[in-house]
Specification:
This protein is α+β, with helices and mostly antiparallel strands. It has 2 helices and 9 strands, in the order ααβββββββββ. This is Secreted protein.
């Protein structure tokens, strides 16, 4: 459990670093980045400010979908050089009662031991006409978050799910899990 938490924290930190690295520099696009940074900093310019701000940064949202039980927010979909693609974000219980996403573990018999988890997630490459299932170890445990103990009302929990990476030419994919609506997202390249 500690290893999963550490991996999740590492993935979120990587996502933040990638998000922050994309925010600097001149955009040459007529001030689009300037307007964006003004909206996140309350319209104040950071020019001449030599101290680094310690205000919390807002995470990038690639997609947000919901049903009557939960809201799923995807913050990153990062392809690494090892041939994997890691999707991460948060799941919030909006049902108003305790929720155990056991149906998210998927229908495959091999995945039954994963309990309430992201094991039933899949990626769909519409252009390449391929479906990518979640990665698992030799014991059938998914390389994903398990929601041990369920999710309390209004509680948000971070998640990650790891898949085989689609070809480099694929940048747009669809994330699917159980009864949630499909979420269209864009892949970013890791380091």
């Amino acid at each position: 459990m500690k290893a999963r938490r550490a991996l999740t924290a590492g993935l979120l930190a990587t996502g933040l670093v990638l998000t922050m690295s994309g925010c600097g520099g001149e955009d040459g696009g007529g001030g689009k980045n300037r307007a964006s940074s003004e909206s996140t900093s309350g319209g104040k310019s950071d020019e001449g400010n030599k101290e680094q701000s310690h205000e919390p940064t807002e995470e990038k949202v690639l997609a947000e979908v919901s049903n009557s039980d939960a809201r799923l927010v995807i913050n990153s979909a990062v392809r690494d050089q090892g041939g994997f693609l890691t999707v991460s974000g948060t799941v919030t219980n909006i049902s108003g009662k305790f929720w155990n996403p056991s149906q998210w573990r998927g229908d495959e018999k091999e995945l039954n031991a994963n309990g309430a988890s992201m094991a039933g997630a899949a990626l769909v490459d519409k252009a390449g006409k391929k479906r990518y299932l979640i990665l698992r170890d030799t014991g059938g445990r998914c390389l994903c978050t398990q929601f041990t103990g369920g999710i309390k009302p209004n509680e948000a929990k971070p998640f990650f799910a790891q898949f085989p990476a689609p070809p480099q030419s694929t940048t747009d994919i669809t994330f699917q899990i159980a009864d949630m609506p499909p979420a269209d997202i864009q892949i970013t390249e890791g380091e």
